[in-house]
Fold each of these.
Amino acid sequence: MSKELLEYVSRVARAVDSIIMESVRGPTRKLYDAALHYVKAGGKRLRPAVVHLFGEGLGCSSTEALSYAAAAVEVLHTYTLIHDDIMDKDTVRRGVPTVHTVWGIDMAILAGDLLYAYSFHLIAKTTEKGLEPWQTVSMLSSLTEASIELAEGQAMDMEFENRDDVSIEEYLEMIRKKTAALFEACAAIGAIAARAAPEVIEKARSVMRYAGIAFQIKDDILGITVATEKLGKPRYSDIREGKKTLPIIIALRRASSEDREHLLKVLKKELNSETDIERAARIIERTGAIEESERMARDYASKALELLEGIDFVNDDRKRMLRELIEFIVSRGY
Amino acid sequence: MSKELLEYVSRVARAVDSIIMESVRGPTRKLYDAALHYVKAGGKRLRPAVVHLFGEGLGCSSTEALSYAAAAVEVLHTYTLIHDDIMDKDTVRRGVPTVHTVWGIDMAILAGDLLYAYSFHLIAKTTEKGLEPWQTVSMLSSLTEASIELAEGQAMDMEFENRDDVSIEEYLEMIRKKTAALFEACAAIGAIAARAAPEVIEKARSVMRYAGIAFQIKDDILGITVATEKLGKPRYSDIREGKKTLPIIIALRRASSEDREHLLKVLKKELNSETDIERAARIIERTGAIEESERMARDYASKALELLEGIDFVNDDRKRMLRELIEFIVSRGY
């Protein structure tokens, strides 16, 4: 990331974090500690940056309202991380133990539920922060639609764990819901705050749909290629959990029958030693699945950039930063 | 319940159920089956009735918008049941196996999350069903505040399981959040739909705060006194789970030291045979805790009725039915 974009993202992150820390407060200490665990552990806050970039770029002058909406998105994202970690039995996230590992599953469920409530609470606040009520309602619709898709995407992801024959099309549909839908909502929310016309909102959505798909493909790649310390979570957890990520789907198609058999046994947890898992990762790499996935991620990012060019921005600085952000999504090392 | 009130509640239930069944639909079959499990299993739909009674009583003419808001509340209530059942390890609800018992904990978490999203989605819809956007935003604020309190109340309830010294004041604060907050929101939402003045909304809230507390106390009593078949869930589950309900708190204060010791051992699950649990129930009854709890429930209901008299209704039929509904809350046999 350029210094300019890095500073912008950090500024948005600070604004959003301060809203979250001031808003998400209450008397039941343990519950709130659990709820704020990942917020305090860091994270890039890319989604809030997308809300701000589209919002400011398309002419919204109320930065505070934008930050409240961006905080709502980040809080919603955080709740999904807490609940997904329970379902995926993940033990480490953002370099810290997962919420259910520290506080137990019951408290983790409740901490997620609390954040969900705060997310919509923050959206409701955008009216008193200067937006028109219809803008708040419109943002609410975008966010609830994304929330529904998030749950559907997670259900598909879980179902795919028990299947060997997941197609690339099914995978793409799953990540569109599980990951891209919230990025789409970020674009829509920013555009709504800027009172953009329906067709502009739709175009903004499409940009982030493609960028969101690229983001998830890249995430799946990094889960295989990047070391644990850099990743903030254990390497190969997708392989261990039998997830059908793009590199894994491609590898299952391309591998020799012997390699395919080994890979399937690891994905089905019939083999689970570190050596077995390492060998599965080497099989995936050997098929060229990483390169093919990289190529697809870049294609989706290119499509996003192309669509972005078709939107007239009031503020071209923001458009330039959005362009760079989308490029970062596929070029990032972790 | 009088025939008039029964018919009214049934009519509202039908309207709300049909909105829920039409709205909560999607491609991931298992997830939607799990989410709709309790909706299909029945339930009284008291909360939707409260939304409608305040809404129509205070002069809202858009019945459809009211039903959408009422459906949002019912869906929110259903999500809390699914997640609470996981945390409380309950196996039966409304006469059917609990969601996590049928579909597993992961799918139950996700089904709850999906309903949460639909709840706010239905609130967002009230604008297109005829309300002004500011009314929708105001309803959203009420519902998110209640959601936050629901999670806080559930956290208190869970924490109380590990304590012997929970006071009546702490119990009342817990059920105000866990149960009364959503009834309060029902009153507020109805009043907002009717464009009631802020002070009327506040009064309506107070009515249902007291009625909601009475409702929960009565629920706690019925959990001890009513047979499993009528209850739709196993009798004595509060005792089994070590819950600090009002009858239990009172009994712990009044019981002889020998009885208290037995009761505590059962609550701490050190003793858990059916005979031990039956004996604990007899101890609670012997202390007069049931009668004292009944008295308190009636006091709260009386306070609710008194406050209700202080509100001017446009439609006095609805006021009369609300009065009867509040009386039903404390007189019901299950």
Amino acid sequence: MVGVTEQEKIWTAALLVIGDEILSGRTQDKNIAQVAMWLNEQGIRLAEVRVVPDQTDRIADSVNALRASHDYLFTTGGIGPTHDDITVDAMAAAFGVPVVIHSEARRILENYYLNRPGGLTDARLRMARVPEGAELIRNPYSGAPGIRMGNVFILAGVPNIAASMLEGLTGRLKGGRPIVSVTIGARAAESDVADLLRETEAAHPGVAIGSYPFFSEGRHGANFVIRSEDGELARLTGTELSLRLREAGYEPVQGGI
Amino acid sequence: MVGVTEQEKIWTAALLVIGDEILSGRTQDKNIAQVAMWLNEQGIRLAEVRVVPDQTDRIADSVNALRASHDYLFTTGGIGPTHDDITVDAMAAAFGVPVVIHSEARRILENYYLNRPGGLTDARLRMARVPEGAELIRNPYSGAPGIRMGNVFILAGVPNIAASMLEGLTGRLKGGRPIVSVTIGARAAESDVADLLRETEAAHPGVAIGSYPFFSEGRHGANFVIRSEDGELARLTGTELSLRLREAGYEPVQGGI
């Protein structure tokens, strides 16, 4: 067996989406795609997502399963000021530590609400609660910070606040090589080019080709996404796939349709 | 302990979203919300979602975990004609049965491709493969059927094809009482009404109130979603919450903002 260097290691993350509003269908999740794209830029692969309801035991169990099986765990949702925001309590239960008021978080909130009506109420002070031992993730957008607890990163559920917290973490997590993806589209029914796709993938170990069909303007089409940690290999495979599609009578569209 | 009748039982389902395209962030998932809303109409609660990559063992492990812990398991993705469509193989592995060609699925596909260019190619015939013992879920949209295997329902990943398969299942699954939800919106920062929300929820056992903040047109606002299996109770709680909001100086908006 050959030793794996840090460069070669595949870094993985899981995402735990917390919220009844996602499971009821009321809210269309936008954090999965956003966290996935951001992780990819950090050279970290999103390997698993779970969505659980606002229930302490369900959250805690998932946290403990996922933080053990991945390099990183991100969570979204449940860190606001209302009674249904129980992520911090569930996280503390998962880690077996008490919930405490984080003094720096308290200062940030005091400052943020200084000239706002009502000031720092008890409800707002809830947003300074953290599992004992946690660090803060800065959030320039709305004051209330995210929370880091070991390899777990606790983000807000509102997508633009989550984005602001991710921005604060950019470049600060250890990762490997980002995955490069090249997309080729064609007005082909994917079943007509299935052999061609399989053969192209088989001829280039280290790439994965995904096929994503659509039907628009009365015609079938598909986008073929070539993904690899080796950018040169991804581009080369893209060029060859384009060539093969053209030979088969389909005009390839660089970047997809 | 009082016996639980079928009417009182809470029916739950899990959803397994299968696909590298979701985990890479390339595709924004639309099936979670769609399946959630459909299940709710059937009186079944979506209790958990997982997203896994196109890897046989990861799919099979999740299938076995989720089908055991819920009344129903739905999956989306990976049942097309290309090499990256491996859901059927993973499902067969999970159930410990071989993959076979389903004779009725074959007939459906033969008929569908009868007057289409190329006819029923080997790649298209892949879509007639099922785990041994499976039944079909009709799909008027594109011919290729979904698959039912015990309490597992295998749907397409393309949202409108998944919708068509769900339509075919409407009213055919055992469920309980649908959850009724009532939404009240207000131009209030949720931290200002946190106590009011907690008290209203506590005063009405059997309801859950979720608070979903937003910021638009330069002002804070939030929608409060009251959910209950008891429709009358949900409406009553909505009326009371509106009253309390008005008393606190916020004009409630029925149906949310």
